[in-house]
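Much of the work behind modern protein science is quiet bookkeeping, done one molecule at a time. The protein below has been through that process, and both of its lines are reproduced in full.
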Amino acid sequence: MKKTISFISFFLYISLTFAEVSLRPGIYRLIPEDWQNDVDTSHLTGNITAGEKTEVEIQHAIPASSQIKYAIVSRAKVSDNRDISENKMMFLEQENPAATEKDANAFCKRYTWASRWSKSNLYCYAYKADENIVSHEPLFKWDQESFAIRWVSKKQHIDSQYTPAKHKPAKKDFPCLSDGCAPDITIKNYRQVYYNDVFKLETPQPYQDILYLNEDMPLYQEPNQKSPIIKQLYKGNSVAFILKTPDWYQVDDISADGVITRGWINRDDLIKVQWYPQKAKTPLFRFLVAVDETTNSPVAIAVIDRKTNNRVQVLRNIYPCEPIKNYVHVLQDRDILTCAKISDENDPDAFKSDELIRLVDANFDKYPDLLMYGSSGGAGPNNTDNYFLYYPKSRHFVFNKELSSMPQLGFDSKNHTVTTSMRGGCCAYNSETYRFINNQLKLIKTWERYSTSDKTSETTGTLKNGKMHYRTKTYKDKSH
């Protein structure tokens, strides 16, 4: 089905407006009656003397073979700023659909916006309709509760029409009437094709993400493995994520017809892992680390009560860094740690499955905290580790972002201080010393040394009466 409008013009250009807002999460339905109304052609004008005649044709942007009627949209914050959020979007096709194309444009099912896009996350980049780019991906225009999907318009030459002059002008005819001495006219006929479809929010839902399933897994009625299994979910499908517990995700499995099946998936089912017992133990807990069998990278830490043998906490969201397979980065509630090195690619035997975590009393409260290896830091060495502090009231380990970002940490249990050191190039060194005050790190001392070819400067800082006081000393190199 298509709609055709004729215009005679020298230039054709469609200007699309874009509202800098995010879509509300939920289920969106294709609106068949709006597909041709959303394209604004009111501004198009023309003049036959320009030598072109253009026929404007509006077609569906969604390939008919895909039988798409619905799309799901998720929304999540991309920073601590509550006003900044971005969407993921997925069109719902029939199960195991054949690949579909639209004028040689492969139709992608999943789209995401700039800050959440990467080549490896199975999502296509969502271009704005006003970016004025030539793309083989569709363009999007949206407001809070609707969006339009479009392809870049295409202009095709159809044929040319020749109209001879009624009376060819001669010198004696000057000046002559335009209707009596019109010149020969050749009109080039073009077809400008625009592709457009509109989706509108039908059912608002609190979707935070769209999860791609790497494995087959059951969908449970309740967050309990003894709960009835509602249905089987299959590898390659996606579900809409609603909320999480330490062990479960609540999700919606949505059919191509927009029918929702809500249930729970076990987070252990998302990827194939091998759980390794750790040598590190506390009087209260022992620990297991889950290692992805395909990447040889840790993906979770389980905290086990030594008396009851129950799992009391799982630190999850650990994924391999790219492109180096033997590094991982750890996300704890969207806080990204530095890469955690677990093996040396030049020495595979260096990987010790029972020594992936260590214990240290990082905040001097007499309770052991967890440490996972961090980035090597290059030649600095400037290496970092990842720290999870234990809180006895909640009996939980919590990722500490400050300690995990500090290179080369040293702990002085006698003075209850933490010192971080860093090397910057060949001739610059510095260190900072902190003390935990009311569970917060407080800077109490600094040292910095910088050398040039003939002199060295040292600056020290000391906390006095609540303020840092600095002193710099410079001395010449005796070798010069």
User: Anything to note?
Assistant: The chain has four domains: 2-204, 209-269, 272-403, 408-480. The CA atoms of residues 108 and 286 lie 45 Å apart.
